[in-house]
């Protein structure tokens, strides 16, 4: 489990195409401290497994399902990525519950700078809009953010200087894709209520 608090801005150093999969080599001095084979590291919000670790770099394999559901397929050598290690039991939950299971991708639509923050408008796939509410939580490229406004096909977030300086959202521009993970609690509530309604209808 992750919390959406990015630990560092890493970099893709190599990309190897493996037919219906890819192997990425990524540099991240912070997240590789003590890393070993089989560990999990979130890359732009996608939970990946460490295959090899050497120095401040690690490799991870990405299968076709992940490439199709996320924006990782657009990464190239030199791409900057948000990196986060899983939360340890007993640590503070600084963001919200993040699984690293991307639900879909959005696109940066607009950026409105202000003196001390910036408003970013992001497109929202139709199948995810019901999970996004004003002042609710959403994960964008692995960053735990609060929704400012929620529309039917878009939402906005307000970014503080720290987020702009230390994550990919500081360098993304209109047209760039981002990974989205909605609040898992909303999905469980929907499923439970759906099962309850179905059960009530079946008993009539």
From TrEMBL:
One of its GO terms (biological process) is riboflavin biosynthetic process. Pathway: Cofactor biosynthesis; riboflavin biosynthesis; riboflavin from 2-hydroxy-3-oxobutyl phosphate and 5-amino-6-(D-ribitylamino)uracil: step 2/2. Its EC number is 2.5.1.9. Signal peptide: none annotated. It catalyses: 2 6,7-dimethyl-8-(1-D-ribityl)lumazine + H(+) = 5-amino-6-(D-ribitylamino)uracil + riboflavin. Pfam families: Lum_binding. Lumazine-binding repeats lie at residues 1-96, 97-193. GO terms for molecular function: riboflavin synthase activity. Residues 1-96, 97-193 form the Lumazine-binding domain. Keywords: Repeat, Riboflavin biosynthesis, Transferase. Catalyzes the dismutation of two molecules of 6,7-dimethyl-8-ribityllumazine, resulting in the formation of riboflavin and 5-amino-6-(D-ribitylamino)uracil. Homotrimer. NCBIfam families: PRK09289.1, PRK13020.1, ribE. This is Riboflavin synthase.
